[in-house]
Structure prediction request, 142 residues.
Amino acid sequence: MEAKFSFESLRLLESHFKFSTDFKPKRKQPIEISTEISISHKEQNRTVKVTISVISVNKKQPFILDTTVMGTFNFLKIPSKKDLDKIVHVNCAAIMFPYVREIIADLTRRADIPSFHMDPINFVALYEDHQAYLRNKRKTKT
Prediction:
């Protein structure tokens, strides 16, 4: 699977940030921030638009956030659906993720709290876990 593509642009589609009024810090306990990430894409001709959303809605955190970015990738030739899905969820997501981390870190810093730096993500493992989930889901339907 060799696909030649270029990263053309990144756009912040939306970002919502709110201090959590339900958050009550406990003394000398580290604050854990949990996030959910979702990746989707749309293709048109040889252009693929990849959307990454990061959501953190745990009320036991100091803040709630929802951020969505879209990256545009141009392909020399669009690969098969299966190959494109893997490229989007692994390669494109890995290219875009540092920008997403920077946006979220800057957003928290601007809220006058310590910058929140998301942990690195292994997009290969995330993709493989998602594929295993889909296979198991198909098996239980039959």
About this structure: Helices lie at 81-110, 123-141. Strands lie at 5-19, 36-44, 47-56, 63-75. DSSP finds two helices and four strands in the chain. The mean pLDDT is 89.
